Amino acid sequence: SAVISQKPSRDICQRGTSLTIQCQVDSQVTMMFWYRQQPGQSLTLIATANQGSEATYESGFVIDKFPISRPNLTFSTLTVSNMSPEDSSIYLCSVGQGADQPQHFGDGTRLSIL
Amino acid sequence: GENVEQHPSTLSVQEGDSAVIKCTYSDSASNYFPWYKQELGKRPQLIIDIRSNVGEKKDQRIAVTLNKTAKHFSLHITETQPEDSAVYFCAASILDNNNDMRFGAGTRLTVKP
Questions:
Q1: What integer pLDDT is reported at residue B29 of this predicted model?
Q2: Best interface-test mutation with A: which of B3, B97, B101, B108 has the largest number of A CBs within 10 A?
């Protein structure tokens, strides 16, 4: 399966600031997704990153708070904007190769907001 | 949209015993059901998956069964070992262009030596 590099692996940020998380894949992939995993919880889909167009957001997530870019088939970024302590979580990117293939996850970014 | 329920939330077994985790889904259009294992501080890793045209799939000590009529699927781990201790997530998705996936709440499996 594809090698997925996510960075930073962790960060501690001040409230009100923004952080951009990068996801790089070593091969072209059809689908890229961003998830949030709060401590001890399951994975919640934030959005699907669409190459060359606006991301598709899930209910409860908006572009102003979580802007996403996907300039090509191997790279995507997620920005967590105007952070508050409630945004403290693990953010994971995942990739899928198409309609009949599973998703594979990056190592995640552990984000703490003070 | 799809809703996936997973039980139990925690499961403790003795080494060598079997473990069973069950999930139900709501959207009859779902046709792909992966299982992920997440060790503490690590990424979720795919351990087995099943598609709707199959009722059962095995990979060594791990098996998954699917009942499309009842909309439930289960993970079976036999001869459990301490290294099987982790959180297991089931998921369901519709294999279309979006490939959106919905996850269960997770099961924390502890295998006691």
A1: 87
A2: B101
Q: What is the pLDDT of residues A49-65, one digit of tens each?
A: 988 888 999 999 999 99
Residue of B95, B100, B106 lying closest to A42 (CB–CB): B106
- SS3 string of B1-68? CCCEEEECCEEEEECCCCEEEEEEECCCCCCEEEEEEECCCCCCEEEEEEECCCCEEEECCEEEEEEC
Q: Is the peptide bond before A8 cis (omega within 30 degrees of 0)?
A: yes
Q: Alpha carbon of B41 to those of A9, A45, A46, B101: distances in Å?
A: 11, 19, 20, 22
**Mean of the pLDDT values across residues A37-44?**
94
The size of chain A, in residues, is 114
Contact assignment for B42 to A42 by CB distance below 8 Å:
no
Mean pLDDT of A77-105: 92
